Structure formats: C-alpha cells, structure tokens
Amino acid sequence: MAKEITLLVCAYLLGSIPTGLLLAKASGVNIRETGSGNIGATNVYRTLGRKVGIMTLIGDCLKGLIPVLIAKQLGLPEVWIAATGLAAFLGHVYTVFLGFKGGKGVATALGVFLGVSPLSVLIALGVFILVLVRWRYVSLASITAAAAMPLVIAFLEPKKLLIAMSLAIAALVIYKHRENIQRLRSGTESKFKSS
Ligand code: G3P
Q: Superkingdom of this entry's organism (predicted)?
C-alpha cells in the first residue's frame, strides 16, 4: 500500500508542475496575465508562438503519461492505475504550487488517456480535430473531445473504474472551461490562429 500511496503523491506533485507558466516565465512573460490567463498550451501558443506552445503541450502531456506508465509497469491493479491518472490530472488542475489554481487539464488528460488507452486517444483526437477545423475554437474542441472520451472508453475499454475516471476528468475539464463556455455563448471566444 505504501508504494501505491507514494505513487499517488508523486503523480499529484508531477501534475502540479506548471509547465506553461515556467516556460513563459523563462521568456519573461506572466502567462496568467496574458490572453485567457490560462497556464495551458493554448494560451502559451497564443502568447509566445508555436515552439513554446508545443513544448507546453508535450510537458503537460508527459505529466499525465509518465505516472500511468509507472503504475502499469509496477503491475498495479486497475483501481490504482485510474487513481494515479486522476492524481496527475488533479495536480495540473489544482496545483499546490499556484494556490490550487491550475489549468484546464486537457493536455494532462491526453497523457493519462495515452497511458490507459492509446486507441481511445486516437478517436478523441479525431473528434478534437474535426471540431477545431470546423469552428476554430480550441476550447470547443477540448470540451467536445473530453465529453466524447467516457463514451469512447466505455466502448473500447469497458472497465468500470476507467469509465469512472474518464467521467470525472470530462466533468472537471468542462467545469474548468466555464468561462470559455460563456465566451462561446456571447461570441467573444478567440478563434485559433496558426502561427
Ligand atoms: O486546453 C485549454 C483550451 O481548451 C482553452 O484554452 O487559453 O483558450 O482558455 P484557453
């Protein structure tokens, strides 16, 4: 049990590292005071361009992927794999390093699901790309892909705990996008521009 609890704490702490905020800080920018104010890859991309945006995406994704892969490597049962993924995700969303005010969790969730079910990610990514290409809103694409994930998991990995984890993640991702949803409704959300 000590091993499992240690992994949960480490997953949470790894998830808590605010990749985007640190990378932006290295470029002299306070990412929480620019664009949407979010610490995620979309806002970093919007503010500092493709290279730093992609670095943030990869860093945030690895924070979800690495703990899940370690849990699998240790041969832990599904309940601990799901809990580890959730801990890393919660670390990003409610980071201890920023007074529990973190990001929206999309890239870290991507990493968690890559570790759990790469095929599900492929389908969710397809949904994300279709919505992004059609409407040009990253937030709308993120919300739609997150909402699709529990259905995809239920179909491809029909295990209760993984479905529960994906439902919890989807609900939190959507909740964290509540300001984006308001902006989408009022027509003031920024559209994605490739740089
Ligand atoms: O992953 C976050 C994205 O869906 C929205 O980011 O910066 O537009 O709020 P942002």
A: Bacteria
The CA distance from 17 to 103, in Å, is 11
- Which protein residue's CA is at the shortest distance from atom 9 of ligand 1? 36
Mutate to test the pocket of ligand 1, among 138, 173, 176, 182 (most ligand atoms within 8 A of CB): 138
pLDDT value of position 193: 86
Mean pLDDT over residues 131-155, rounded? 97
What is the residue-wise DSSP string for 152-179?
A: HHHHHS--HHHHHHHHHHHHHHHHHTHH
User: In the numeric block, which tokens belong to residue 157?
Assistant: 């990995």
pTM (2 d.p.)? 0.95
Q: Give the Cα separation of 31 and 70 in Å (integer).
A: 31
* Domains in the chain: boundaries: 2-186
Closest by Cα among 22, 24, 101, 10 to 63: 10
Nearest CA to ligand 1 atom 1: 106
Percent of the chain with pLDDT over 70: 99
pLDDT at residue 180 in the model: 97
Q: Which of 23-27, 67-71, 136-140, 157-161 has the lowest mean pLDDT?
A: 157-161
Q: According to the model, what pLDDT value does residue 8 have?
A: 98
**Which atom number of ligand 1 is nearest to the Cα of residue 106?**
1
Q: Is ligand 1 within 6 A of the CB of residue 142?
A: yes
